[in-house]
Amino acid sequence: xxxxxxxxxxxxxxxxxxxxxxxxxxxxxxxxxxxxxxxxxxxxxxxxxxxxxxxxxxxxxxxxxxxxxxxxxxxxxxxxxxxxxxxxxxxxxxxxxxxxxxxxxxxxxxxxxxxxxxxxxxxxxxxxxxxxxxxxxxxxxxxxxxxxxxxxxxxxxxxxxxxxxxxxxxxxxxxxxxxxxxxxxxxxxxxxxxxxxxxxxxxxxxxxxxxxxxxxxxxxxxxxxxxxxxxxxxxxxxxxxxxxxxxxxxxxxxxxxxxxxxxxxxxxxxxxxxxxxxxxxxxxxxxxxxxxxxxxx
Length: 297
Description:
Blueprint lengths: L15 H4 L3 E8 L23 E9 L18 E9 L13 E7 L35 E7 L8 E7 L5 E4 L1 H15 L21 H31 L8 H13 L10 H12 L11
Antiparallel strand pairs: 1-2, 2-3, 3-4, 5-6, 6-7
Helix pairs in contact: 2-3, 3-5
């Protein structure tokens, strides 16, 4: 990771952060909500780049020496840190870049517990999103790293895990769950497009009244399944947040939901694939395990 700290010459010599603001590993992602806004096949080499919507994933690394990150480029004065970006290109119906927000960016630091420091979605980013905390993976000059970018096994929604293993210190960090949530929400928005707007004449051009009820119902079922997984991800993230607030207690309803959550999945105290946790909690949401007492839906 960069040069050994002992080789960083004292000021006024040029420092690492002055030579490279960041460098990154990257790959294209399937995203029908990004230009050219066409449907795409996840985990496939068969997509037509002129038709399939595509976002761009970047795992960015930031050198030390020029903090704070929110106004500069470093997490602190001594350590490297990293983040996950997913960038989409917004284009209006007339083919022009969206003047209000051409390139939407989802951002989260690579965290030891996998939980973003703040909201990662482009429409909900806050100062906390760009402020490292005690769970942000910090790396030293000269550390040897193993970087992984991979599909998460068992995650039908195409979740992507970005992970860093610091082979020198033995620490590791990752970011995945909220990326999957954003992908699910994007899919739901695409499916929410009314089925009826794409009608065609039938009966040799005599009629154009075709029931789209079944098509709409199938899309709605997928949206509901996506929502169940998004709620499951939020419950998992909220549960980890409560763990860090112990021994303080939340309200009765929150503690009841937390107890239900912990009866299904354990705390994330070491790196593990989260797809099984998400599926288990989503099934409990579907079964009404988190409904208020006497208010089952």
